[in-house]
Amino acid sequence: MTWTAPPVERTEQLGDLGTVTERRMLEGWLRRHRETLLAKCAGLEPAQLVRTAVEPSNLTLLGLVRHMAEVERWWFRRSFAGEDIGDVFTGPSDGDEGFDGVRAADAERDFALFRNEVDACDAAAAGHDLDETFMSSYGVALSLRWVYLLMIQEYARHNGHADFLRERTDGVTGD
Fold first, then answer.
1. How far is it between the farthest Cα atoms of the chain?
2. The pTM is what?
3. What is the pLDDT of residue 124?
4. DSSP letter string over 2-69?
5. Half-sphere exposure for 117 (CA within 13 Å, toward CB)
6. Phi, psi at residue 166, to the nearest 5°?
7. Residue 91: inside a domain, yes or no?
């Protein structure tokens, strides 16, 4: 049997995030965007996950999953938590950040790596105050709050790409 991207159970309802604490709101919106990316992939086979939408772009749904694992690792674990770890797939230093080298044969593994990275990033941020700062690679002080906001906008931007990629793949639209 061919592996397919698993269905996503929504854990965040937008109405539930309207009057919660700032921390809970940021975590909830980030979780909602993570789930949205995976929902755009749900039910697709590996060959569909690596389909590009428009030439010459190499953008694929699986590439987005890989990219977001890499970006999460960079900001939460390497930058904020200061973990001395390598890249998940490829890294910011090469400008690829997971988009290149996408193979249908690796889809199941790549999804597992994404989920593991999300869990590790959540653990890296847990127990830290939103005002806690770190020095970025550009020598600028940034807060954990800034990282959450950056990640939310990064997912929002790429979830828009995922909308088009999914529609191009099988016509499915919506959240």
1. 50
2. 0.94
3. 98
4. ---PPP------GGGGSSS-HHHHHHHHHHHHHHHHHHHHTT--HHHHT--SSTT----HHHHHHHHH
5. 26
6. -65, -45
7. yes
CA distances 95 to 11, 41, 90, Å, are 33, 24, 8
CATH number at 149 reads 1.20.120.450
* Residue 51 domain-assigned (yes or no): yes
Q: Record the tokens describing residue 73, joined without a space.
A: 């690792």
Structurally, the chain folds into a number of domains equal to 1
pLDDT tens-place string over residues 114-158: 999 999 999 999 999 999 999 998 999 999 999 999 999 999 999
Q: Kindly report, residue by residue over 48-93, the tens digit of the pLDDT.
A: 999 988 878 889 999 999 999 999 999 999 999 999 998 888 655 5
In angstroms, the CA 141 to CA 135 distance is 5
| Residue 81 falls inside a structural domain | yes
Q: What DSSP character marks residue 101?
A: S
